[in-house]
Amino acid sequence: MPYFIEDDHPDCNAWATVKEDGELMGCHPTKQDAIDQMVALSLEEGIEPGGERAEQRQVDTEPPEYIRNAAARGLELRAEGYGGDGTTDKTIREARQMADGFLTEDKIIRANAWGARHEVDLDAPSNSDSDADGWPGNGAVAHYLWGINPLNPEPAREWFARKAEQIQEERGSDMTATITRATDNIVRQLDFNVEQNADGLTLDGYGAVFDQWTTIEDNYGEYRERIAPGAFKRTLGMRMPILQFDHGSHPLIGSIPLGRITSLNEDAHGLRVKARLSDNWLVQPVRDAIRDGGITGMSFRFRIIDETWNRGNDGMEERTIREVELYEVGPVVFPAYEQTTVGVRSRAALTALQDAEVRNEIALLLAAGTDLESLATTELTADPDSLHSTDTETPTERHVSLPTRTQRLARLRLAGITTLEQNQ
User: 86 and 121 in contact (C-beta within 8 Å)?
Assistant: First the structure.
């Protein structure tokens, strides 16, 4: 049940924070104090603040039975394993509220816009024909969860459209955003067009594009977002971001940079990135995947310095990002490597990477441009005792091996060579 603020509560002679049913939660001398409590209570329960409530509610937001039934059916299908992985916890939570007969005004406005945008999904028989192969498709389940029966969508669409119009008329022009969303550690993705050089080591593409509206759905709801030209201008003069793969989340590559960004600048289209990938066995799978078209995504992580909010004609909130601080940029793959050779090697190396000395040595070797695979092959054929020799005449240019057998085996495992462990 959402929380509201109002200035005419019978038990409060100033600004009150109340529940939907009118229960007084707090009486405050200023409107801002009431807003602060409303937001805090809403965040604690994971729901949206209801906003300022007028003396008499003009719009009846109780959903009709066919919308409640559709939401309930969507929850049943989700419980049976349908619907895919794209549905947010917020959508599920709101579907439960809808099935119980409760809808907020903001949910009605968003549902009206969502239904219009996703009408095209019902062109697929798997989303609109219960006798078709693949029924119920992800689009059908999503419609149910939003209170729209995909087999007969018009009644719900018409109801949402009518109610959204009434709400907007009641609110008048005061349709500004009331939710403060995250502004730090934000990640955004887009397609990355790669222009390969003959050596296969140079990437050239866009890490962000300007003035392109993108629909974002997070814990606070759905909204549109775009990046304004000039958003990166200041951050580019401060420091060079890190070039990483999958934001440093890959279990083997981790936060080790893929290489070096050689050029980063804004043009009329967006943020153009040129980078030189390192030439070693660890980065090789990423290079191969980019070359073969297996990786086509670019992503960047940033903090918002300046932004503006408005509402579109359909009632959806719109954020324009005007200035950011850029942390990192790099290629990404969705989903991450799970069935490929890289994924198998990564999982085999997880135990080895638990050793801090192993991680430290690998970082040093990679920084020096050492070919770990050939080094591991040398160790594979060498006398294990000689690998731990303390002979002071050992040439300094020879890389000293790991100090323990466990760490030596870890190095071999990281290079994808496990024969030594199997034979001992």
Answer: no
Closest-CA residue to 134 (of 150, 153, 114): 150
**Measured CA angle at 101 (ends 99, 105), to 5 deg:** 110
Give the pLDDT band (50/70/90) at residue 157.
very high
The mean pLDDT value for 179-195 works out to 67
Give mean pLDDT, residues 122-129. Answer: 94
DSSP lists the bridge partners of residue 299 as: 189, 330
> What is the C-alpha separation between 315 and 176, in angstroms, rounded?
9
| Helices and strands, counts by H and E, the chain | 14, 13
Q: What are phi and psi of 195, to 5 degrees?
A: -110, 110
H/E run at residue 218 = strand 214-218
Show the tokens assigned to 363: 């970082």
C-alpha 238/C-alpha 242 separation (Å) is: 13
Cβ pair 277, 286 in contact under 8 A = yes
Give the type of residue at 266: E
Q: How far, in Å, CA of 423 to CA of 107, rounded?
A: 63
Asked if 243 contacts 290 with a C-beta cutoff of 8 angstroms, the reply is no
**How is residue 93 annotated by DSSP?**
H
| pLDDT tens string 284-300 | 888 787 777 777 777 78
- Is-contact 12 57, C-beta < 8 A? no
DSSP SS3 for 242 = strand
pLDDT digits (tens, 9 = 90+) for 26-85: 998 888 888 889 888 887 887 877 787 755 456 788 999 999 999 999 999 999 999 877
SS3 helix, strand, coil % of the chain, rounded to 5?
A: 35, 20, 40
